[in-house]
Amino acid sequence: MITRAWLLVLVLMVASGLASCVSAVPLPPGIKIVPPTGGMPTRWAAFSGKWTGWWEDGIEHVLVVEEVRETEALVIYGWGPSPSRSFDAGWRREHGTFEGESLVLRLPRPAVVSYRLRPDGKLEGWYIWNGGVSRAVLVKDTPR
Known about the structure:
Layout: H1 4-16, H2 42-45, E1 49-55, E2 60-68, E3 72-79, E4 90-99, E5 102-107, E6 111-117, E7 123-129, E8 132-140
Antiparallel strand pairs: 1-2, 1-8, 2-3, 3-4, 4-5, 5-6, 6-7, 7-8
C-alpha cells in the first residue's frame, strides 16, 4: 500500500518534471533497442522501446523492450526500491512471449507480468504473484 508521504513525493516529482528525468531504477550499460523489422506484426512492433511508470504500490518500473521477434521479445525488467524498503532497486534480462495481444513475462519470484497496449498509446501492466496483483500504466520514453 502506498503511504501518504510517498504519494506526496510522487505528485511533487511529476509536478516539477523530475519524474521524467530522475529515476531510481538501475539499468545495465549498453542498452540497444533494435528496431522491429518491416514484416513484424504492428501490434507487437509497437512494444519496442523504453517504457517508464509506477506500480500502484509505489514502486517505480522501467521496461525496455530491446528486441521484438516473431513470437517473443527480449526485455530488461527494472524496478525501483520499495517504499517500505523491503527490497532494493534492480533489473534483470528476460524473454517475454506474445500471448494474444499481450507481452507476458514469467519471473522467478514466482510472478507473471502481463503488458497490453492501450488505445491512447500507453502500456498497461499487471504484476500477479501469490500476494496479489499490482497495476501500472507506463509511457514510452522519447529520445531527447
